[in-house]
Every structure is written in structure tokens, then in C-alpha cells.
Amino acid sequence: MAVQQSVGRDPYFPDNGDARYRVHRYELALDYRPDPNRLAGTARINAIAGRAALTEFQLNLADFKIGRIRVDGRQPHYTHRGGRLRVRPAKPVRAGAAFTVEVHWSGNPRPVASPWGGLGWEELADGALVASQPIGAPSWYPCNDRPADKASYQISVTTPSAYAVVAGGRLLTRTTKASTTTWVYEQSAPTSSYLVGLAIGKLQTVLLGDPGPGGVPQHGHIPAQLLPEFSRDFARQPAMMELFQELFGPYPFDSYAVAVTEEELDVPVEAQGLSLFGSNHVDGARGAERLVAHELAHQWFGNCVSIADWRHIWLNEGFAKYAEWLWSERSGGRSAQQLAAAAHRLLASLPQDLELADPGRKAMFDDRVYERGGLALHAVRCALGDEAFFRMVRGWVRAHRNGSVTTPVFTAHAARFTEESLDGLFDAWVYGTALPPLPTPGTP
Length: 444
Prior knowledge:
Elements: E1 21-33, E2 38-49, E3 57-60, E4 65-71, E5 77-81, E6 84-88, E7 98-107, E8 120-124, E9 127-131, E10 151-160, E11 164-167, E12 170-177, E13 180-191, E14 198-201, E15 204-207, E16 218-222, H1 227-233, H2 237-248, E17 256-260, E18 269-271, E19 274-277, H3 289-297, E20 306-307, H4 314-330, H5 336-348, H6 367-384, H7 386-399, E21 404-405, H8 407-415, H9 423-431
Parallel strand pairs: 1-10, 16-17, 17-19, 20-21
Antiparallel strand pairs: 1-2, 2-7, 3-6, 4-7, 5-6, 8-9, 9-14, 10-13, 11-14, 12-13, 15-16, 18-19
């Protein structure tokens, strides 16, 4: 596993995360009552100090009531303001030492404020949904909220038995006592805090295709009334899975699930092993099929191979956008070249002041990051040719599986697959702002 950790604070979100330590496991036990929107939780966080002793450290957690905190079983001093839980252990943690933090909290979860509106835990008309990208994870649990700090998770959720609980990972147990049911999920693969997704609602579960021996189990969790439309809209997802495994390498997790809410969402959102869609993405006419491909592709790009900090978001979104074009090309739709030309025309009509390698916080979800990111990868494909390009992509996932990466790491990786220099290509597409000419096959 190759891990590229960013040093110090995230330049886009300096109040989130703490680079002085890393977490290797979260164990979350939650009790959620939908009607009063009441959440009570316990977190056991196993972490390792960095190169310096920890006299204090930070977790991110929204405005909940703190019931108890322990560090290695001892009561620390702590303050909790502005979404930051600052903890000073009774005894400093030695450099490189493992330590355990236990936090009890309770309250009414709600989204955290951001430039893009509320993020994280969202109370629905009948249930709840968690979509945290990029800084919504502290809306419901204490975490070291930086994308490069990836950990395994066990999540236990107790809720009234009428509700299903869907999380990324493997369902270990489901136990009913009286009127409540406890669902326990295990996500063993290292996971960024923003990629821990959750859906709580009155949902039916269906199997998407027959995975066969050695195949990837794929399930849908949807409101019963949307099942006919869902069955058509997601019918080709198993074929997408086959194609992406051919092009990108083996699916990186144990299973894949999609959850659909009864309410509308502006856009679908990926989580690790799980994607979340709104009812508006289910129309029975495959109207959102490109988004089905986009969210599935994130399991390789963004989830398995994660970014070291948010400056490099194009490595998530550019690959997912290009996967849309690859699916279209291989499923009888428009070719990647035709879709690249359409994206190029769109970008030509927009301001050309965005640097893909560092778009800035305000522009990190700008359409230009997605479209220009897809075009940058198309330019690499045109320069390398198909055989070398897809070898490069599979090698990228294999080399950085479960790790974190940066733009310079990617450009250095791609350069290994050609004798020609790619410096000019990356200078123009990734580090420049002016729109280069439309890439075509065989052009450097």
C-alpha cells in the first residue's frame, strides 16, 4: 500500500483533521430514534501518534452533548467548541505509540454548514441519510476528518424495527429485541471519514443480477413504490461492474450497494461500498444512467485510491467523469471522443481561470473540474494509446490501493508508460488555465 500523507493542515479546510496522529479503526455504536431525530453514540477510536509526542490532539465533532471521554481509560481535559473537540490526555502519548479514545455523545444530529449548504446527517421525512463529502462526517460522529486518514470501521446502529439500516461494508448481524433492531456492519478496507455513508428508512432490498462464483454482490435498497423504475434504471449496473473491472482492475471491496431515498437529492453521492441516490434519479427510463456509472467508478477512484488533500479532487472526479464516457462508448452510446468534444465545447463557453491541480475551495465542485478532468485523462489516452493507457490506469489502482495520492504522484506514474514526455500535456491540462485544443487519438 502506498500512502501519500499531506503535511500539516488541509489548505482548503484548515479546521478539519489533525495530521499529528492517524486512526486505524473506529468502532461506532449508535442508537437513533427517527421521530425525535435523536442520536446517542459511543465511539472507540484506535489511533497511533505521529513522530512527536501528543500532549493534545483534535477530533472533529458537531454540536452534541459530550457525556464522557477517556484516553487509554483515563479522563482527559477537553474543550468542545466550533466543531472541534480538543483533547489533552492525562499523560502525553509517546511518539509512535498506539492509543485509544472513547467518546460518548448525544443530541439532535443536523447537517454542518458549508459553502455548498448543509452536509452530513440529514433528517428525512421518515428516516435519515448521511452524505458527507467533503466535511460532513463530524455531523454524526467524532473523527479525524481528513481524507488521507483512512481507517477500518465497525458500525452498530439500533433503530425502531420498521426501519432498515444500510451502510457500506458487510452486514455482520441483525438482531431484533422488542421493538428495535440492531444492525452491525464491518468495513474492513481503509476508509476516509467522509466516505462513511448511512441510510435509514423503510426500504426493500433487491439483488442486482447474479454475481456468480467470485463475483461482486450488488444490492439495491429502495422504497417499495420505486422498485419497478429502479429495476430498469439500474439493470445495466452489473454490466458496468464487469466493464470497469476489465478496464480498472478488480473491484476493490467485498460488495457494492446503492440506496435510494424517497426524497430528491441534487446529485448522487458516493460512499465506500455504497452510493446514495434520490428519488429524482429513478425515472424508469435510465435517465440517470451516466450517474450510476459515475458513482460506481468512484469505488476505484476516490474510495480505494483516495486523495491526500482536497486540492487533488480532480483525481476523483476526472476519473469518474471519464468512466461515464467509457461506459457510453462500450455500451452503444456516444464515443469517448464525441463526449470529449461536447465537454470541450462546454468549457470553451466558460471562464478559463481554473487550475485543475488546485481549483481552490470555492471551485472544487465546479463543473469545470469534472469536465476538464475527464478531458485531461482523454488527452493522456490519446497520447499513450489504448493499450498503454489502460495498463497505466490498472497500475495506478494496483500501486495505490487503499492509499492516498497527489497530482504529482499521478503525473509521474503516467509518464512511466511512454517514452515521450508528457510534461507539456500536464502543464497545459492540469497546471494551466487556458483551454488546450481538443485532444484526438495519436496527438501528444
